[in-house]
């Protein structure tokens, strides 16, 4: 039911939101900022009508049991790995999110990382003025590969994977992809995963976080890959068996991995990927542009729709 007239619902924000989105919601509700580590122990959770989260707040049956008045969870983002949808459904708690909010940001990051690996740029602090030295430098910095000569393998053809494939094809890459659903696409050819691993010069991962995808890429998959493959993962850390990847990278100096997501986050001190020269690790920033974060933060509008008794635009549950 909608909130009682004159009674402002309590909304808990457990992670960062764009200031304008937070202010918009504050005009309509009592917005309290907590952090994931203290959320379960805070007595205000029992009074909350809504919870707005991002990546690191785990919403499960245990947390829901501490929030008897909760009516809606807003996920400022796309992935729902941290939200137990069945538990929310059983409690009658709506879940809303922002599909597509960070697609452009992630696609940009994928190609920036790809080009870092294949076309590194060198900017000259002291450019040579001698012609022979200048020509020698140009020969030395000739890139051995270019995107238009390579095969891109895309694992997972959701919003992001599909857009990556479209951009790659426009750059002249041959596109192969693997997905759970049969797809007839003009800009790529669908193949089994084993074929994808063997064919790809560059392999980029864009699957979701369902439990069945845990260690989807392990020793068998890496054993099929080219010795100089460029491997990218911006999807979920647990999709990759990091021990198997570390073994592969250790045995193939010409290969490299560019990983933006990890399992766990942050790293454990004994992660097998730490210290490998051909493992390049970033702190889960593929979707981290100001524009994407602003768009994701406006999940607060759907949160308010639920509290006002309206149907949200982007419901999950």
What does this entry look like structurally?
By secondary structure, this protein is α/β, with parallel strands linked by helices. It has helices at residues 19-26, 36-39, 61-65, 85-91, 103-118, 131-140, 159-170, 193-199, 219-224, 242-251, 290-297, 300-307, and strands at residues 10-13, 30-33, 50-53, 72-75, 94-96, 151-155, 174-178, 189-190, 202-205, 230-233, 256-259, 279-281. Strands 8-7-6-9-10-11-12 form a 7-stranded parallel sheet, sandwiched between helices. The protein has a 5-stranded parallel sheet with strand order 2-1-3-4-5, sandwiched between helices. Helix 4 links the parallel strand 4 (72-75) and strand 5 (94-96). The chain is elongated. The model has no long low-confidence stretch (mean pLDDT 96).
Strand content: 5-15%
What is the average per-residue confidence, as pLDDT, rounded to a whole number? 96
The biggest sheet amounts to: 7 strands, parallel
The best one-word shape is elongated
Low-pLDDT runs of 5+ residues are none
Any idea what the radius of gyration is?
23 Å
Helix content: 25-40%
SSE sequence, one letter per element: EHEHEHEHEHHEHEEHEHEHEEHH
Terminal Cα separation, in Å?
16 Å
Q: How many E-type strands?
A: 12
The number of helical segments is: 12
